[in-house]
Amino acid sequence: MHSYQVTEFGAPLSPADGGVPEPQGAQAVVKVDACGVCHSDIHLWEGHFDLGNGRQLPFGSGPDMLPITPGHEIVGEVVAVGPDAAGVSVGDRRVVFPWIGCNACAICAAGNEHLCNKPQAPGITIDGGYSDHVLVPDAKYLLDYEGLPAELACTYACSGLTAFSALKKVGALGPRDPLVIVGAGGVGLAGVRFAEAVTGQKPIVVDIDDSKLEAAREAGAADVLNSSEDDAGKRLFKMTGGAAASIDFVGAESSFKFADRALRKGGKVVVVGLFGGSVTLPLPLIPMRSVSVQGSYVGTLDEMKELLTLVRSGVVAPMPIETRPLEQATQTLEDLRAGRIVGRVVLRP
Ligand SMILES: [Zn+2]
Ligand SMILES: [Zn+2]
After folding, report:
1. 83-94 mean pLDDT
2. What pLDDT is stored for residue 60 in this prediction?
3. Which domain holds residue 219?
4. Ligand found nearest the CA of 44
């Protein structure tokens, strides 16, 4: 088994070779066809999240978790299953639902495994898909993607699912309920593509990069706005008359403020991005404006099944994918961190 691992936070990934694991119980081994490169991989690589004001949140258990193989957008062929694995056979092609919990706590019992405090998530807390093989804790997390290209299917495990779940939290919108999406990176663009199917509204998309806004237009945005221009906030309010909902796919101080100020009274901002930072909110304005702030982190197993059904029905245009060899993992993380990637890069071993 040939993998690329984080052995030291921030250092180039190290190639590692070892035996392919033997699946026990309900586990399964997937021979990786493709693995998407996600912003969370940068946080794992750097070893922390930025909480603003010089504070950092360590990623997972910090240095104790090293070495670890990143990569949680995994698709491939089932090559071995444990004696209790159900629902898949060797030779099946599957995409991995990676947001796996402990399966024992109240959060998992409620179907929110992605929020479990003892996660066993490939590429996050256990070895993931920057490899030619990956061990999946239970075969029930292997989902059928028949009808979709493999390198597209893997992106639905995180960027697609994250966008879909955030839009579900917005819910159905009427014709007079504008939706604003802030940030047109990989996840934001997925949100632009799914927005009409999930909420009924084409979004107005805001970013600081014109090439990303162009991509958003092609992905189906109703309109676009560069937030680095003068009076962008005022112009947005003029375009919308106040948004019913906004989604911050960046999660920086400036993007959150923009998403919050775009709202009309009673509106909701969903925060998805993990860029980092902090904000100060004037408390009286929260009740007076009756706004809600809701966080959204990846999504549930049920949402991923629902999403795969939606994309396999063909109503959502596929996202542009660039494939690179697995050996370019470190370079790809650097490109992503520097904002040089439009759409999604998928690594192939
Ligand atoms: Zn749990
Ligand atoms: Zn991700």
Report:
1. 97
2. 83
3. 163-295
4. 2
Task: State the ligand closest to the CA atom of 161.
Answer: 2
**66 vs 86: CA distance, rounded Å:** 31
Residue 138 and residue 174 share a domain: no
User: How do residues 230-267 score in pLDDT, each as one tens digit?
Assistant: 999 999 999 999 999 999 999 999 999 999 999 999 99
**268: pLDDT strictly greater than 90:** yes
Token look-up 């796919």 returns 249
Cα Rg of the chain, angstroms: 20
Going from the Cα of 307 to the center of ligand 2, the distance in angstroms, rounded, reads: 16
The rounded percent of the chain whose pLDDT value lies above 70 is 100
Whether residues 235 and 344 share a domain: the answer is no
Q: Give residue 147's region: left, alpha or beta (phi > 0; psi -120 to 50).
A: left
| Alpha carbon of 59 to ligand 2 centroid (Å) | 14
3-state secondary structure of 187: helix
Calculate how far, in angstroms, residue 115's C-alpha sits from the geometric centre of ligand 2.
Answer: 14
CA of 103 to the centre of ligand 2 (A): 21
Using DSSP, state whether 137 is helix, strand or coil: coil
> In this structure, are 8 and 121 located in the same domain?
yes
Q: Which residues surround ligand 1, an ion (CB under 5 A)?
A: 101-102, 105, 108, 116
pLDDT at 189 over 80: yes
- Other C-beta atoms closer than 10 Å to the C-beta of 214 total 15
Looking at the fold, whether 107 and 195 belong to one and the same domain comes out as: no
Q: What is the pLDDT of residue 343?
A: 76
